[in-house]
Design a protein that fits this description.
It contains four helices and eight strands, in the order ββαββαβββααβ. The chain has helices spanning about 30-45, 70-75, 120-130, 185-190, and strands at about 1-5, 10-20, 50, 55-65, 85-90, 100, 105-110, 200-205. A hairpin with a 6-residue loop joins strand 6 (about 100) and strand 7.
């Protein structure tokens, strides 16, 4: 979720999103790193969008903060469209990171999904601003996979976990570390449909407002 700002005088279209991270595996360093990962991935294509005949440069302004004492009420009653709240833990009962639906501002990150310039946070951010997984998940011959392709996608060999593996065999699906944000992902946001107020701001995404409790392994 975020707040879009249209600066006509500079042909700038800026999407502001602020992430508050809580949970036992969260930290100040990880909060900053995760925000930087999202920013780097979404700004990499130097995206553009056309609004009423004029072209604008699209920029993502992403901030990340560690909030170890975050209270559920803060999440439930937040009305600031820039704010997103994600729990970070070593264990997830789903074994993956997830968000609370399309167009949302809350979710749960599995710690090991966030390391080594992972694309997981950038992928989940795409969900928060309205993007779903593509319907066709066999993209052999299509080249570079966009950021919203999920694990299990069939891709060209150079984008697999194992370049020598056969499709759908062990190692024969998309390695999420090879995903990139493409101009087509920016296009899919349909930014020209946003309704801006008189001050040039619009909301992108929506409030899910879910405070997540820590998942515990079954014993």
């Amino acid at each position: 979720m975020g707040e879009a700002e249209l600066i006509k005088s500079a042909n700038q279209f800026i999407i502001h999103s602020v992430f508050y991270f809580y949970g036992d595996a969260a930290s100040k360093k990880l909060a900053v790193q995760t925000a930087e990962d999202i920013s780097n991935h979404w700004n990499e294509p130097k995206g553009k969008t056309k609004i009423k005949g004029d072209w604008f440069d699209v920029r993502f302004d992403i901030e990340g903060y560690y909030e170890p004492d975050l209270q559920p009420e803060t999440v439930w009653y937040n009305t600031n469209s820039r704010n997103n709240y994600f729990r970070i833990e070593e264990f997830s009962m789903n074994h993956i990171s997830f968000v609370d639906g399309l167009n949302c501002n809350t979710g749960y990150f599995k710690l090991d999904n966030l390391f080594n310039n992972s694309t997981t946070a950038a992928h989940e951010y795409g969900h928060t601003i309205g993007l779903d997984h593509p319907k066709i998940l066999d993209i052999r011959g299509k080249g570079q996979p966009g950021i919203m392709y999920p694990r299990g996608t069939i891709s060209d060999p150079q984008f697999q976990y194992d370049i020598n593996a056969l499709p759908l065999q062990p190692g024969g699906t998309l390695n999420p570390y090879t995903r990139k944000v493409l101009q087509s992902d920016i296009d899919d946001l349909k930014l020209h449909r946003l309704s801006f107020n008189k001050n040039g701001f619009a909301m992108i995404g929506d409030f899910s407002s879910v405070y997540h409790q820590k998942h515990l392994p079954f014993v």
